[in-house]
Design goal:
The protein is mainly α. The chain has six helices and two strands, in the order αααααββα. Helix 1 packs parallel to helix 6 (151-177), helix 3 (73-89) packs parallel to helix 5 and helix 3 (73-89) runs antiparallel to helix 6 (151-177). The two termini are 24 Å apart. InterPro entries: DinB/YfiT-like (IPR034660), MST-like (IPR007061).
Length: 182
């Protein structure tokens, strides 16, 4: 049985939540400068991922999309923790995989409270560590690591990664309980 489509928004039926309740919106001015703009976009996509996971139980968070895919919302949370860690490795030496083997982020995404709590803690820790590492490079054009990536490129790639996975999270969430929105 397909879940009925729904949203918490009361103002615009195609939104996830009402504009006044959206933590990504603010009434202040838009950020000044490229670095502040990039950080604002990254912050908003991080919040979007969290919003797409809110209000679901352990089984729902770990529910796989369609076979043979192992994708789930919990898998996306774990994957993005792994991605944050991986990007930090591009600044210097690669770091060991957070979840061991390739695809361990998705394969190990099981609906157990301890796994879910650990996934969110991993994500927060890896985000903070990557943010701190990149903060040491205020010049977006500075090139780092053996491949000489520009800091700008590392930031834009992180935004792209979150944006792509937030789109997947939209579809996963709609399949779980019918919730739709921006």
């Amino acid at each position: 049985m397909q879940p009925a489509r729904w949203t918490q928004a009361t103002v615009y039926a195609d939104m996830w939540t009402d504009p006044d309740d959206d933590p990504r919106n603010n009434d202040g001015p838009v950020p000044d400068g490229e670095l502040a703009t990039l950080h604002d976009f990254l912050t908003n996509y991080r919040l979007t991922l969290r919003m797409k996971c809110e209000g679901l139980d352990a089984e729902q968070l770990a529910r796989r999309s369609v076979p043979p895919s192992t994708m789930s919302l919990l898998g996306l949370v774990r994957h993005l923790a792994e991605v944050e860690r991986d990007w930090r490795g591009w600044l210097g030496d690669p770091l060991p995989k957070l979840y061991g083997v390739r695809d361990g982020d998705f394969d190990g995404a099981v609906g157990e409270p301890a796994v879910i709590d650990a996934a969110y803690a991993d994500l927060e820790r890896e985000q903070a560590a990557t943010d701190a590492a990149l903060a040491a490079y205020p010049d977006l054009g500075e090139r780092v690591g053996k491949d000489r990536f520009a800091i700008r490129e590392l930031l834009v790639h992180r935004i792209e990664e979150y944006a792509r996975h937030c789109g997947q999270a939209d579809l996963l969430r709609e399949c779980i309980d019918g919730r739709v929105g921006q």
